[in-house]
Structure formats: structure tokens, C-alpha cells
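Input sequence (467 aa), recorded before submission:
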Amino acid sequence: MMKLKKSSKQALFSILFFIAFFALGVSQNQTSPVETVVDFIDEDQDSTQTAIPAEPQQNLPSQVFIAPRYNQTSGIFTVENTPNPKKGRANGYVSDPADIITANEEQIINQMLWELEQKSTAQIAVVMLPSIGDEVPKSFAVNLFEEWGIGQKETDNGLLILTVMDQRRTEFEVGYGLEPILTDVVCLRIGTDEIVPFFKQGRFGAGIVSALTRINQFLDDPEVIDEIYTHNIGYTQNSHQHGFWWYFIRIYGIISLLFAIGYYGVAWDIERSKDDYYDKYIRLEKLKFGCLLVLIPLPFVFFSRMTKRRLKKYRNAPRFSKLNGKPLFLKNAWAENKFLENGQLVEEKISAVDYDVWVTEDESDILVLEYTGKSSKYSDCSECGYKTYGRKRSVVLRAATYSNSGKRKVVYECANCHYTKEEIQTIPQKVRSSSSSSSGSSFSSSSSSSSSFGGGSSGGGGAGVSW
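Predicted structure, C-alpha cell format:
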């Protein structure tokens, strides 16, 4: 009972501190470097002089970008007829058939993404479409990402930012290689902080530039991501209405307190239950915070750290044999191998599953415990049952031409039993580009932009925001 009282006090203290922190943040009215760059774009968007974002990387020269050929500028777009910004003579990163953003903004975005690719090899594509019909933007983004192969094939370091105007929706689709940095939480935060406020004002180019500036900060210094957990979501568009904010903070505090008590209650119930430590670990691991880590950052960052400590405690707690009562000893990564099956060793090798092996001193009892691995690329094989089935390679069977589409074979293989399955995918036909880009610049052979995306794959991660 004393532990419950102590936890309740901690929860109440966290909420009170959060309310004070939020109120202080609302009272401040500072202009960020991103806002400065965006304001500069809006002021000069009708100018013929090219505007380059602040702090260019490595003093790289400005490039001349050629937009894809837009045979269709309105109506419903599909994955197959969405213009690829790197097909034919096109060498940019933006596909905007309906001219939703200005030519000056498109030049700025292309320059930013070109510099980013030169510096880190990461590839980002920006797509602005008026409509995709009844398709779900998330599914459309995944299919378009795979169709274009955004990112490098070896590292899958691609990102697609898709905006569908009639659904008022923007999706961030992230490749495997960028998922550790551009997590779902990070993408959601960039969308709510950078995309939503500008898009609501009709400043679409400014919103994209703001988001890309923030993404560039994360890729430059992943430690900046820590800010995502210590700053609140909020916009001071009506900061002079003190009554509204005070009312909002009070309601927000009550809701935060209710959620805090609820999560503390579940965690306390797990801690006090008579389940063994492995069952406690599994129950606590399933206690996901989801979007609450963003909407109520302060208490749930604290809960997240508490959860990590308890998971470590449950996993490393002393264990005893249920057969003879003798103490079990945890084997290290090398000593445990002789107690695991070949399929389990493969699962550990590819980081799909992590096993702990506990053995009595005389090896009269062996306990093998299964935990979630670091890699999310693999699923259970239908043949051998091990979590070793995933994408192996992609082979172009027939290259696309200007008159016909192509074919690509994607091979999935089990790393354990080598069971394989093949899928045939369509590669859209090439589209000839126009003689001039949307930025009003003619083609220049000196441009060193990549002529195609690198063949990367989507990891299925990311987030979407509605505006």
C-alpha cells in the first residue's frame, strides 16, 4: 500500500510540473530559425531570384533542376501515372503536377534535398497531388515509395512526403534505414509542428520547407530528437486570449492526471501480481504509450523510463527450476548457443528474436525465454515456423521504356529453411520531360543531381497528419 501512495504522489507531482512548464511555454513568443526561413520564402516567392535556405551545407553550389513532364495536371492520380521527378531528363525531387507550390519554392526544396543527398546519401521525395480518389493516403504512399525505390538499395534510407489536397492529408513514409532516427513519433511531431500550421494558412511550400529544415536537423544530429520528448505541441496564434489558454490548461491537466493514474494503476497491478517475472515482462511490454508520448509528453516520458527500468528488472531477476527448485543461471551470448536450435540461432543472428537461456549448474533443467528482437523486417515462415522470412532481393525482368511498362521480380526468402516466394510487380513506363522545369530554368548539363532513385524499400513506418 505504501508503494501505491508513493506512486500516486509521483504522478501528481509530474502533472503539476507539466502544467507549470506548459504555461511558461505558452507565454513565450519566440521566432525559430525555421520560421525565419519560411517567412523569407513567402516574401520573395514572386521574385525571379532563387532563394536558398539558411545555412547551406558544405557551401555546395546551386543546381539547375528539371521537373518531370506533367501530362496530367488535375483529376485523380494513381501510383502508375504520378510523375516521377527522376525519370527521363527530370533530375529533381518534387512532383507537383497541379503547381500547388510556387516555382521559387520548388527550387528551394530541390536544392535542400540535393544538398542532403550529397551529404548523407539519404533521398527524400516530395509529392503534391490534387486527388487520389478513394485510395487511402497511407497505402498510396507505401505503394508509391516501393514503385519509385526511394533511398539507396543497400541502406533503404529514403523518405516520401505525400500530400493529398482533397483529403487534406500529408503522409510521411520512411525507409528501413531512417526508421531509427525518423521514428513514428518524430514524423508525427514534424507534421503537427511544421506542416499543419502552414498548410492551414494555405502556405504549402512554406510548410514543406519548414518540415525539411527540421528533418535536416535530425539527420545532422540525432540527439536533437530528444527535444521531441521535452517540448509541447501548441501554436500561439491566439496567445492574447488568456482566458482560453487557462481553461485549456486546466482541462489538459485533468485529462493528463486521469491517464497518469490509469497507467500507474496498471503498472502497479503488474508489479504486485503473483505472475512469474517473464509473464510480468510480457504484460508490461504490451503496455504501449502510442501517441500519448506526444500529446502528454512529460508524465509519459517519465512512465517510459520507469517501464524500461522494470523491464530490465523482470528480465534479469533470479530464477529457479520448476523441476527441482535449483537456481538457474543466465548464459552469455556465446555459452547459450549450444542450448538453442538452429532456427533459433538464425533468428538471433538476424536480430528477429532475442533469446535468454537459463540453465541449472548441473544442466538438469533448461529454460529458454523469447524476447522481441531489434529488427522488424522479418515475419514467421509458413514452412519452418521461425521468424526468419523477409525480402531478399529485387530483379528487373523487363526495363520500362517510353512506350511500354516494365516488370520487376521481388524475391522473399526464409533465412532458415530457404523457402522462397516471388512476386511480379509492374514498373511504370518512362515519361519524356518537357524542355523547361517548373522553376523556369533551362536544362544544364552541369547539374550533378542523381538521374534516378536508388532502389530503396519502405519500412512501413512514419506518420500522417490532417490539416
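Checked by second reader. Residues 242-272 form the longest helix (31 residues).
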